[in-house]
């Protein structure tokens, strides 16, 4: 009496309306169609981006939706044409797909894929499967997928091109963080900024993503890592992970970039924005040294006008780049999971809370209030 080919009824957290708590409901999850995989999610955590879609200020959100893009689980069944996965495999669903056919997938220069972005706003991408329907139904209504993942459901259906198979002995209650937060920050430092040994770095925003960027800078051998946040409570963890200095822009009597320039004899080699917003973007540029300063942007404040930049800031040698999911993809995430198992980096410091899935609204509040880094929710 397996579940293969049948509709599964299970619990999920549904965002029916912006500005309202998520509702734990019984949902129906349809079997996977061609090139789709149905997964039992074992553990999931919350990333700041999940909260944007249900923020009333974010006008483009598609509702009702099942959010969550930082999960790990086990394959329950596969649809026709799926060759790389089988029931029982441990997997991490990724919001970054890899179709292997488009010009981006064929280039070593990017983890971008044309299947990732059709609407030009990542937070409303991959809201339906390829046949333009959803696999989720609740109370007779079709529910949108989120970022092709929807890990706030005990069972979810994802495309096989959005799935990384990981080691059988992976600890799903920790490696779920590799689904977004850890990989996004760590990869921004290692793969995109390409932080070098002995360099000076500044990391803005010390959430799960920014702290992971600090882990990346430290792993790359940076000699000085300046951590910046408007919440002093974030500094202890930043120091534990390798930050050498911590600054709160609200407590300074001049712009934080000026302070960093003074501290580093002209500016840092690498700056990474893991907070977003035009002020932080400007500080990210201005705190780097002329000549070779490297600025990497990870955060997006969707209601913000972004960065205005003069060519003079660039012709003196700075470079600017954006980073999405830290440059990783379904082919490189399995190695990250093995690296974690082999002790290359520690995910423990990122886990501030563990709660049963039913307490997801408590976990969202902890994140919004700046009281958590990552809460692991267990189904
Ligand atoms: N200066 C310094 N720090 C700041 C400032 C500021 N002006 N404003 C906020 N912060 C700090 C906050 O106090 C907080 O500590 C930190 O920035 C942000 O941390 P979290 O825990 O709220 O957020 P994360 O780490 O989960 O996520 C950060 C992102 C930058 C990824 C996220 O906010 C974002 O911008 N997402 C949109 C981009 C996107 O869609 N990515 C794809 C999926 S993640
Ligand atoms: Zn995320």
How would you describe this structure to a colleague?
The chain is 22% helix and 23% strand. With 379 residues, it is an alpha/beta fold. It has two domains: 10-22 and 47-179 and 346-378, Medium-chain alcohol dehydrogenases, catalytic domain (Quinone Oxidoreductase, Chain A, domain 1, Alpha-Beta Complex), CATH 3.90.180.10; 185-325, NAD(P)-binding Rossmann-like Domain (Rossmann fold, 3-Layer(aba) Sandwich). Strands 3, 4, 5, 8, 9, 16 and 17 form a seven-stranded mixed beta sheet that branches. It has a six-stranded parallel beta sheet with strand order 12-11-10-13-14-15, sandwiched between helices. Strands 1-2-6-7 form a four-stranded antiparallel beta sheet, with no helix packed on it. Helix 10 (360-368) links the parallel strand 16 and strand 17. Helix 3 (181-193) crosses helix 4. The protein starts with 7 loop residues before the first strand and ends with a strand.
Key features of this structure:
Quinone Oxidoreductase, Chain A, domain 1; Rossmann fold; 6-stranded parallel sheet; binds dephospho coenzyme A; single chain; binds zinc ion; globular; alpha/beta; 22% helix; 7-stranded mixed sheet; 379 residues
Q: What's the arrangement of secondary structure elements?
A:
Elements: E1 8-14, E2 23-29, E3 36-45, H1 48-53, E4 71-78, E5 90-93, E6 136-138, E7 141-143, E8 155-159, E9 163-165, H2 172-175, H3 181-193, E10 200-204, H4 208-219, E11 224-228, H5 235-241, E12 245-247, H6 256-263, E13 270-273, H7 278-286, E14 294-297, H8 311-315, E15 319-322, H9 333-341, E16 351-356, H10 360-368, E17 374-378
Parallel strand pairs: 10-11, 10-13, 11-12, 13-14, 14-15, 16-17
Antiparallel strand pairs: 1-2, 2-6, 3-4, 3-8, 3-17, 4-5, 5-9, 6-7
Helix pairs in contact: 3-4, 6-7
């Amino acid at each position: 009496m397996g579940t293969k080919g049948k509709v599964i009824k299970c619990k999920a957290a549904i965002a029916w309306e912006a500005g309202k708590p998520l509702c734990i409901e019984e949902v129906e999850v349809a079997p996977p169609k061609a090139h789709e995989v149905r997964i039992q999610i074992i553990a999931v955590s919350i990333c700041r981006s999940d909260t944007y879609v249900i923020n009333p200020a974010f006008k483009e959100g598609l509702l009702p939706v099942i959010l969550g893009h930082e999960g790990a689980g086990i394959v329950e069944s596969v649809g026709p044409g799926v060759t790389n996965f089988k029931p029982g495999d441990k997997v991490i669903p990724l919001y970054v797909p890899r179709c292997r056919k488009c010009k981006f997938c064929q280039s070593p220069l990017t983890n971008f894929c044309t299947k990732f972005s059709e609407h030009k706003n990542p937070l409303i991408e991959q809201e339906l499967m390829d046949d333009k329907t959803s696999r989720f139904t609740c109370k007779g209504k079709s529910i949108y997928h989120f970022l092709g993942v929807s890990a706030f459901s005990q069972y979810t259906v994802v495309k096989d091109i959005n799935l990384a198979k990981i080691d059988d002995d992976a600890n799903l209650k920790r490696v779920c963080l590799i689904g977004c937060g850890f990989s996004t920050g760590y990869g921004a430092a290692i793969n995109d900024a390409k932080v070098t040994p002995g360099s000076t770095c500044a990391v803005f925003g010390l959430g799960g993503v920014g702290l992971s960027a600090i882990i990346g800078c430290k792993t790359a051998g940076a000699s000085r890592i300046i951590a910046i946040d408007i919440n002093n409570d974030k500094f202890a963890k930043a120091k534990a992970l390798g930050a050498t200095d911590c600054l709160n822009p609200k407590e300074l009597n001049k712009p934080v970039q000026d302070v960093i320039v003074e501290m580093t004899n002209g500016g840092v080699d690498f700056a990474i924005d893991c907070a977003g917003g035009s002020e932080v973007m400007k500080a990210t540029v201005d705190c780097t040294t002329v000549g070779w300063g490297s600025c990497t942007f990870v955060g997006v404040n969707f209601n913000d006008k972004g960065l205005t930049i003069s060519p003079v800031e660039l012709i003196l040698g700075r470079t600017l780049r954006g980073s999405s999911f830290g440059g990783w993809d379904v082919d490189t995430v399995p190695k990250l999971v093995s690296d974690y198992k082999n002790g290359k980096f520690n995910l423990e410091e990122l886990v501030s809370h563990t709660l049963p899935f039913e307490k997801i609204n408590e976990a969202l509040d902890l994140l919004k209030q700046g009281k958590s880094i990552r809460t692991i929710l267990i189904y």
